[in-house]
Amino acid sequence: MKKTLLATSALALIAATAGAVDVEMYGQVNKAVLGYDDGANTDVVIVDNEYSTTRAGLKGAQALDNGLTASALFEFEASDNNSQQFTQNSRSGSTGTQTTPANSPASFNQRQARVGLSGNFGGVYVGRQSVATDGVLGADLAGAQDVMGQDVTSIGGGLRLLRTGSTTSATIFSNSPVVNTMATGFADERANSIRYDSPIFAGIQGRASIQQGGDMDLSAFYDGAMGDFKIAGAAGIQFNNDGTTPAANSNTVKSEYGASLSVAHSTGLAATVAYSTQDLDRKAANANEGETLYGKVGYAWDAFEVAADYGTSKNYRVRTGDDELKAFGLAGQYNLGHGVSVAGLYRNFDADITGASTDSIDLYGVNMRVKF
């Protein structure tokens, strides 16, 4: 890790000295201490925050003689005990309850690596990058974004909703649903792709991308103001290329689409809403498309932000019957300046499962984020 950062810092210094490309190095470390109660056990973990992961990168741009601007982005991501992946262990602890597994090995992965050309026509970018729908559910002016947002499973998503009255039996444990499986991963994707971003007209920018493998994405983003109100919004659709003819009753996801809207008033009050759903191909009898609905309210004053949210996700784990994840949260954040912020979170996960009863999960923690 140190060698990599030293090498990239040296590269940035050489490039800037040579005057070839204007290069900027950036990054952050984002860590949280979380405690949870799953109905059978309580435990504490130290995690990397998946809402905005620990990362470092280089970005550069160079104006060309023909009026175009060439750019490059190179970003790596470090994750140790990811907040969306940690889970209980199926083995019995010394007291006969679930135990949190030991720290998983740290990973160091390429997050983005792309080149691009931009001008009056907009921009075209090639490589591993955010696809056009990345972030369309994340328009959010309601605050406390270090620990709270539409993707409610970013913190605690790997935990299992234990069946009521369950023991530490591995069989019962494996039959307890994972929070992540009950929610969508739409609008949070990076892939090898070609992406076009339009110029911004009246606060609106259109985006289109095609991924290696054939998936296509279309979206529009808005950032503007009206009187005392600041407004952010986005909408998008992804067309999935299966590559084969789906089998009958396979419930193959043909497309996913969604939108988000957030409004903040000059007094500090703000509200956010987001919605997403799917189209299924070769649906089984009585199958239902997955559907999510999310709402958030917040208030900000000086360097403080507080927020509350509630979200539901239906029919992602099981396509028929009653299968719904419900998430409620409270959060506060204090921005110390210079890219440093601290935050606290309380989150409750509860579920309605067809033919089963599960304990809810209470999760709470503190977070610190340092940007550079």
Radius of gyration: 22 Å
- Helix-residue proportion: under 10%
Per the principal axes of the C-alpha atoms, what is the gross shape?
A: globular
Category by helix and strand content: mainly beta
Beta-strand content bin:
over 45%
Strand order of the largest sheet: 1-3-4-5-6-7-8-9-10-11-12-13-14-15-16-17
Largest sheet: 16 strands, antiparallel, barrel
Name the poorly predicted regions.
1-18, 92-96
**Averaging pLDDT over every residue, what do you get?**
88
User: Secondary-structure element sequence?
Assistant: HEEEEEEHEEEEEEEEEEE
Quaternary structure classification: single chain
How many H/I helical runs?
2
N/C terminus separation: 16 Å
Tally of DSSP β-strands: 17
Q: Could you explain the architecture of this structure?
A:
It is a single chain. This protein is 6% helix and 52% strand. It has 372 residues and is mostly beta strands. The chain has a 16-stranded antiparallel beta barrel with strand order 1-3-4-5-6-7-8-9-10-11-12-13-14-15-16-17.
